[in-house]
Every structure is written in C-alpha cells, then in structure tokens.
Write a structure and sequence with these properties.
Protein name: Glycerophosphoryl diester phosphodiesterase
Radius of gyration: 26 Å
CATH superfamily of the largest domain: Phosphatidylinositol (PI) phosphodiesterase
CATH class of the largest domain: Alpha Beta
Number of domains: 2
Shape: globular
InterPro entries: GP_PDE_dom, PLC-like_Pdiesterase_TIM-brl
Organism: Lentilactobacillus rapi
Number of helices: 21
Helix content: 40-55%
GO biological process, one term: lipid metabolic process
Structural class: alpha/beta
Largest sheet: 8 strands, parallel, barrel
GO molecular function, one term: phosphoric diester hydrolase activity
Number of strands: 11
Strand content: 5-15%
CATH architecture of the largest domain: Alpha-Beta Barrel
C-alpha cells in the first residue's frame, strides 16, 4: 500500500512536470493540488484493468477476502464481471470525453471544479473520443507485441544472461509505452521537456519503482517439482464421458494419483455425478439440479449416483478429488450432509474434496478432520492465504506469481486447472505448482521440463502484469 501511494504521488508529479513550459511554473493552490491528485487517483483506478504499470496483479492478490465473500463472488462471477465491464467502459468513455480536464484545471484560470468539468466536456468531441480509444488499442497492441516478441526471442535462444536482460527490457520499455499513452490521452498539450531536471528525477524514480515491482512479479523459475497428475472428470484425451463410472473404470488402470470429478446435490439431498449446475427439462428453461428431486432428474437424464461412483473408486484403489458444486440455492448444510452420508467410503482411500464453497469445505473438515480440503478458483483474486484449507486448485490462465506466493506461504499444495497444452503445462510446472488437473494426463506424464531451456515461458506472465 505504501509503494502504491508513493507511485501515485510520483505519477502526479510526472504529469505536472511534463506540462508545457509555463504551466508547471504556476503556483499550485491547495484546491488545484487536491484536484490534481484526485484526478491522478482516478486515472490510476481506470488504469487497473490495463495493468497499472505492473501493479494490478499485486493489488488483486493483496485484497483481503473472507471465505463467504470468495464464494459469493465466484458463484455470481458472470453477472459481476459483465456489470463491472459495462461500468468500466462507461467510466473510461466519460473520462476520455473530458480528458483535457487536467490542463484546464492547472491553467492560470481560477475556474471552479464544476466549471472546469463543463469546459473539458465542451472541448471534447466524438472524433476525439474515437481517437482516444484507438490510442488505448494502439498501446495494448504495442505492449503485447513487445512482450511476445521478447518471449519468442528467448524461446529461440536459451541463455540466462539474455533472460535477465529481457526482464529488465520489458520492465523498462513497457511502462514508458503506457506512461506515454496516459500523458498523451489526458492532455493533448502534455509533452516531455527533456531539459527539465525535475522530469528526469521524478521520471527516473517512477520508472525505477515500476521496474522493481515488475521484476519482483516474475520469478526466475523453480526446478520443477514432480507433478501430481489429476485426471479431469476421469477422462484422458476424450476417451470417455466425464464424471461416469465407465470412464473411471477405463482410466483407473493407468494408476494416476487422482481422478477429479464433480457432484451436485439434488433437492431431496442425493448427490449425483454431474458437472453442470443445470439440466434441460422439456418445454422449460434449464433448471438447477439442487431445485429438482432425484426422481425428476432421472425422468429426463441418465444419472449416476456418487455413492456408486465412490464404491467403484474404492474397489479400484483410485483416489478421488471430488468437486462439490455450489450455487446460490445450495442447502446451507450440504457439506455436513455430504460428510455424514459418505463418511466410511471417503476414509478408505486418501480422497480429497475441493470446492468454491468455503463454508461447505469447513463443514466437511469438522466432520472428517483427516480429509484434505481445497479451494477452487474460477477468478484468481484476493489474498487467500488466511483461508483454512489444505490445498488450492487455481484457474491456470490468470494465475500469477503473487497469488502462488501467498498461497504457498504455509507450504500448502497448489494445483492448476485445466492445463491441456504443452505451453500451459510448462508454465504451471516452472511457476512451482505441485500438480495439474488435465484432460491430457498422458501428455503431462511424458512432459520433459528443463528449467534453463524452458524458462522463457515465464516471460508470458508479463502479459498479465501489464495488460
């Protein structure tokens, strides 16, 4: 937080110093100074989805989050994300419409805050708004090209010295590109006076700060741990139907450490093997399974009971990682009921349970203290290190080094899902995870990882940091 406040202060100073000669020699009144830094804070907030010079992932992984909050946000993620995207686009569009506000505010005119907003609105135009959006798109494309280009070069030439130079180059060049775009957008009059000593001091310190943060965010890779291979829904390379006893029987012969599968609770408290929260009922909208009785679900769909699946898994000596599915309509005592119903079967092998439902995991842990419980992420956000679980199953596309560091603080196991490409498998392994949930278990089993040769993959993490 202190680093973030320093960064915002430095950013405001760079913007002020970069004003044309005459503007930055004006005496700042307290009102103008407050207005300047409120505007800079607002710009920093708007820049969060665009990486904020590498701070976004750091901030996202540091947000305190309770178990109940984590579950609610994850269950309602689609509505929340769409709503936030709409609000963000509106806020960014309106801000671009009044993008000359800062120059007008810091001019010699003593116009009030509201009058300055009106002047900035009047100064804008539809054409200017379109050009502003294009400038942001140009920045995104440029940052993407810089990072992927440097990554591709490291893929072709494996050299540790080149690797460290590449990290420094990304951390130096990308913030300049983003800063230039921000300055260009939020006043057409802003320019760099390269003869200004203050500009070099403030700009240099700001770049140093972002470089340090960026360098800390991408690790240098870890010697890969032996990967725990977790067969996603019991299927390997599309050789069966997920979450079925037939697939379990077919693929347990490979003796992978775990088969991951999904269960849903019906309205009358039966647990069935199913991934999707809803089932289709003729002449009706899709219905959530936990609002229907087992008899109703069976009337329209083939159903396999979890109790039968668990018995077969125990007979085949195949440990499971069971994903307990959660919706807004899930029964409040679902975890306790699940543990009570399957207490004996769950303790025959080292079966595990993971879920987005933190409260249900804690219910299971209270009933079955020796059963390992894990938190599944769909959106990688928040500081989850204080949540009392044994392991994490993290969505692999947006997993960051900050998140892995916070989750790994107590040596808890970290898995990623669903890694099916060689690139994704390399990245997760070199970032230091303990295992991977995959539809391509054989591919992962035969994956040969060389840290010095494959470290280049980690440079792709800068796409998460800066975009």
């Amino acid at each position: 937080m202190i680093l973030l406040l320093i960064f915002v202060g430095m950013l405001g100073s760079v913007i002020f110093i970069s004003l044309p000669r005459g503007f930055n020699q004006l005496k700042l009144t307290s009102k103008k100074l407050i207005g300047l830094y409120l505007a800079v804070i607002w710009l920093a907030i708007l820049w969060l989805p665009l990486g904020l010079f590498g701070f976004t992932n750091f901030i996202k992984a540091a947000i305190p989050v309770s178990g109940a909050m984590f579950t609610w946000i994850t269950v309602n993620r689609q509505v929340i994300v769409i709503s936030l995207m709409i609000l963000y686009l509106l806020a960014l569009g309106l801000t671009l419409r009044i993008r000359k506000f800062l120059v007008l505010l810091l001019s010699g005119d003593e116009a009030g805050f509201i009058r300055t907003l009106k002047l900035a609105w009047r100064d804008g135009s539809f054409g200017d708004l379109v050009r502003s959006w294009l400038a942001i798109l140009e920045m995104v494309v440029a940052v993407f090209a810089i990072i992927t280009g440097i990554t591709a070069f490291n893929h072709l030439i494996s050299n540790q010295t080149i690797w460290f130079i590449s990290k420094g180059l990304i951390n130096f060049v990308v913030p300049i590109v983003e800063l230039k775009t921000m300055l260009r957008l939020f006043s057409s009059s802003i320019h760099f006076d390269w003869k200004s000593g203050r500009l070099w001091v403030f700009g240099g310190v700001s770049l140093l700060l972002t470089t340090v943060i960026g360098a800390a965010n991408v690790n240098n890779g870890r010697p890969p741990r032996p990967q725990t291979i977790i067969v996603h829904r019991g299927v390997i390379d599309h050789n069966g139907t997920g979450n079925t006893i037939a697939a379990l029987k077919k693929n347990s012969r490979f003796h992978f450490p775990y088969v991951e599968m999904d269960i849903q609770e019906t309205k009358d408290h039966h647990f069935i093997c199913a991934h999707d929260d809803t089932v289709s009922i003729p002449h009706k909208r899709p219905q959530e399974i936990n609002t229907l009785s087992l008899k109703t679900v069976k009337k329209y769909h083939h159903v396999e009971l979890f109790g039968d699946y668990l018995k077969i898994a125990n007979r085949l000596h195949q440990p499971l990682i069971i994903e307990l599915k959660v919706t807004n309509q899930s029964d409040k005592q679902m975890g306790t009921r699940f543990a009570d119903q399957y207490r004996a079967g769950l303790q025959r092998l080292p079966h595990r349970v993971h879920s987005i439902g933190y409260a249900y995991l804690r219910q299971i842990k209270r009933q079955l203290p020796h059963t390992q419980i894990g938190l599944v992420t769909m959106l990688n956000f928040g500081d989850m290190s204080k949540l009392n679980v044994n392991f994490y199953t993290l969505e692999h596309y947006t997993v960051s080094n900050y998140l892995i560091r916070s989750a790994d603080i107590d040596q808890r196991q970290i898995y990623t899902w669903t890694d099916n490409s060689r690139l994704g498998m390399f990245r997760s392994a070199i970032m230091g995870v303990n295992g991977q949930v995959t539809d391509q278990a054989q591919k992962l089993a035969h994956l040969k990882i060389n840290l010095d040769r494959d470290r280049w993959v980690l440079l792709l993490n800068y796409l998460l940091d800066y975009l």
